[in-house]
Design goal:
Helix content is 68%, strand content 4%. It has helices at residues 16-41, 43-52, 60-77, 84-108, 125-147, 149-154; strands spanning 10-12, 155-157. It has a two-stranded antiparallel ribbon. It is elongated.
Length: 160
């Protein structure tokens, strides 16, 4: 029995659940790619904004490197079906961390720098929270679908 597989050996039945997961992965992939590119293109500004945060100033250099790197890695992992569940959990927890940071900084800091990058910087904090919560819900839905036995049964690995 051959237990190795190639991505080309993977096939899925087309169902509304599979399409939903694909759409959510595309949305997350687009979000993370856009955010990572925005941060990378204006890296110094991103690093300075992180340094202005009362909670992250000591770690600004590391965070400035790690956040876009993690976002780029998640973009790739979201589209590798055998790693998708891991990528969705990682995306979920990353968005929860971003959201928790926003809530903490809004409640305990006088100065609230936004280091989101690109068009997301233009959102107000309420809109940003709504946006993040919507993405957290999307990740939760995708995780629930991917963890579902019927979804797993729709993925076939050709081992012939």
């Amino acid at each position: 029995m051959n237990t190795s597989f190639k991505i080309s050996d993977l096939s899925m039945k087309v169902t509304y659940k599979n399409i939903t997961v694909e759409i959510i992965c595309i949305l997350y992939g687009t979000l993370f790619f856009y955010a990572a590119i925005s941060k990378a293109l204006d890296y110094q500004k991103f690093q300075v904004q992180l340094g202005q945060s009362p909670l992250r100033s000591a770690y600004a250099d590391w965070i400035a490197f790690l956040v876009p790197t993690i976002e780029f890695i998640l973009v790739i992992l979201l589209f590798i079906v055998p790693l998708r569940l891991f990528a969705l959990f990682a995306s979920f927890f990353l968005m929860v961390m971003f959201t928790a940071y926003i809530i903490i900084i809004l409640n305990f800091s006088d100065f609230v720098p936004c280091s989101c990058g690109g068009i997301l910087e233009e959102l107000g904090w309420t809109e940003h929270l709504i946006f993040n919560v919507a993405f957290i819900i999307l990740a939760g839905v995708a995780i629930w679908i991917v963890n579902n036995k019927k979804y797993k049964n729709n993925i076939k690995y050709n081992t012939a």
